[in-house]
Request: fold
Amino acid sequence: MKSIFKWFFIIGGVFLVLIIAAIVIIPQFVDVQKYKPVIEEKVAEATGLPFALGNDIDLSVFPWVGVKLTDLHLGNPAGFNEKDMVSVKNFEVRIKVMPLLSRRIEVKTFVLDGPVIYLEKLKNGRANWQGIGAKQDKKAVVEKKTEKSSSEKGLPIAGLQVDKFSITNGQMIYVDQTANLKKQISDLSLNLENITLEKPIGIVFAAMIDKKPISFKGTVGPIGKEPGKGTMAVDVVLKALDELEIKLKGKLIDPLDSQSFDLELAISSFSPRKLFSVLNQSFPIQTKDPDVLNKLSLKTRLKGNPASILLSQGEIQLDDSKLNFSASAKEFSKPNLKFDLTLDEIDLDRYLPEPEEKKETTRAGATASSKKTDYGPLRKLVLDGKVRVGKLKAHDVVVENIDVHVLAKKGIVTIDPLALNLYQGSVASKLVLNVQKNVPQTKFTLDARGIQAGPLMKDALQKELIEGTLQIRAELSMTGETPDMIKQTLTGQGELLFNDGAILGIDLAGMVRNITAKLGAGEQTKEKPKTDFAELRMPFTAKKGLVNTDGTSLMSPLVRVMAKGDVNLVKELLDLRVEPKFVATLKGQGDEKQRSGLMVPVLITGSFASPKIRPDLAGMIGGQGLPNVEALKQQVLGAKENPKEKIKSVKKDLTKQIKSLLPGFTN
Reply:
């Protein structure tokens, strides 16, 4: 037994001496330069491009198997500007020998210094990276796929450790002659720290993109013995252009199988305007206020997989506005969407562009609008969205407490409620859009109460037309998507009601007082003209574009106005009759008694573009409108006797003033 062990140790010792001798002697006596042409030939054969190595080649065997190369050059195909497509100043890798016996890889050094990659696309569309590599036959591809599937079970190693992994002084140049574009990445460096299977890997990356800084720092992992399976932590920070900072923290779950993720995303506050300025790009959005879009930040939690995504705890800060949000998406082929948005306040006028001059509609524009709309995507869409806004300003109109709920399913889109507060009043409405057929059908209901019409008109139209408390009730339906189709099918009913207000710019009662003053019964007034009223009611019905306004009335002290007739939206024609009366009462709202008085009926006809306003002479001659002298005396003066000459003068003055109230008055 002793002799057996003796010979065993002797043989083992001999082998050990031979291995050590080989490790020490081989690098000293093997002429590495002899194999340089062979290496260059094999690489050129594999890539189809010329390849060259520098003369400084270092080879080591023990305790580290290593190689050090300098001046690597992979040439460009013929016809390109640069000589090399890839060049490397220094390359070094060293791997420890003994751990390999136990399937452990220990890398002491992996350094790539001064790599330069040049990518170019010619005007004819040919690129220097196309066609690199030898063609593989189908058998090789099948074998490669088989090897990949077998490796999915796990790494064929028991452990991994890399002490130093770095890329320094890197460059990448991209030239596209077809787009006259050139981009350059310089000063590129990448360092990986703590590269093992069991611990998170540290990543430090920095570069200059077109002389502008970008950096990436953080940890990823551990990757585990079965990469792509299990949970992989992520904690990284991206910084760019000295303006943008993006943080991503969370975990990736089974990246190769379920591909799930649970991440927190945070974009620190930055200025979009400054960002575009740093990029030497003009800002793409024109705004009325140049100080907006100078502050933007975002944070949210993202959770999902290839089949669905969920955004929660979302917050966007835009200048002085704050938006909280949550959203989800699944069944992307439809898609199936859900969102909930809450905005505190925003002044949209600051973000809108300066108003442009109105341009005449061209035939080309009319042709473009006549194209049929594809409602297929809207029929598939599944949507459940809620929007709440505390305060919103647009076109100088201020709206508060907006509450909108949008539902869409099987081609029916419902907005209910669509509620808001508007100038001390409230608006509640509902909209249903049905696109199940090729022509959309729309139903709309509106109930508005307590709106102060004066401030609304002043802000919305920059005009003072009417004052009073406004109520609106309407139920309308229409079919079609173009204005013409909507006008032809508009059907429904409703009512506009103004209480305790005034029509500005016209003073019918004051006109009577002025006439009275001319007859010696009072003083003339010089106040800003307006017609006070207790109630202005405008009911309407619509059927296939024909709107009827019978029942329109104005109740005011000394004045009563009744109107009736039709408005043809399709042909854009007017056919209205207005019957004003001056009455001897100061009652207004609620006064339903038939009052006699001085009546001058007016007909409003013609088109929308060129309306005609004229007195209804037939009605006046019929005795319903034109009074006799005694009646005029009683209505205007309330006196028993007055000279006939003054009465005629009053009638003449009255006609003149009525004409002055109606700029379109024609005889």
